[in-house]
Amino acid sequence: MTIVNKEEKTKGKLQYHLRVAPGDVGKYVLLPGDPDRVLRIAKYLDNVREIGFHREFRTCTGTYKGIPVSATSTGIGCPSAAIAVEELANVGATHFIRVGSTGALQEGMHIGDLTISTGAMRNEGTSRFYVADGFPAVPDHFLTHALIEAALELRKSLGFQLHVGLSASDDAFYGETPEFIQMLHRNKLINVEMESSAIYTVAHRRGLKAAMVCAVSGNLITGEVVYEEVNQGLIQGWEHAIQVALEGVVRYEMAGYEHILARD
Q1: Domain count, the chain
Q2: Which domain holds residue 174?
């Protein structure tokens, strides 16, 4: 009997789901959920090219201020987000920034505001395949700090509000009852989305770096939501989040954190 080790079988090869191969992606990868949002990111990149578009996974690669950067859509939810990180890591990506949409959980947060996560409550099943229930899902400190610095620098010129704190990742969009949302609010979580906890967990297990910046799509506590028409505030928030992520990459690269830590 031969039991397949999926990591050994797939590392360094053309990837089964994403259809990317070694050399196709940069060290840094931005991770939106929606394939169309990959094209929004691509507008900010030089020498950009589409690498592949298979299932929910669309990948483009280019450069930003001379730094190789890719964008890959993850689809909705932790299972497909985990696949994206695993397969991108298999072909050489090492730093992942989720750039998505999120529901706000506290008063004073509005559509189009940006949130940067310092950790995620794991209300999903994917990460349980990797770690025990009590294991924390946290982003990389230095990559997150670079995003915060970039956001503080850009928020006045771009005109957005910034919120930094703990978030939640849920599996079931329509399973979030008012009572459940109230529990998240009561525990001072600032936002809820559907991918970050798996991204953080997979990256950590593989010795890689992950972080998240999201645009607020609506506020689940105050009732400020848009479900039946184009959410123009969210669209503008996406653009701001993309710019923060890219400038965060530049700050992180220039700071040389990995070289400093390796030397110590």
Answers
A1: 1
A2: 14-263
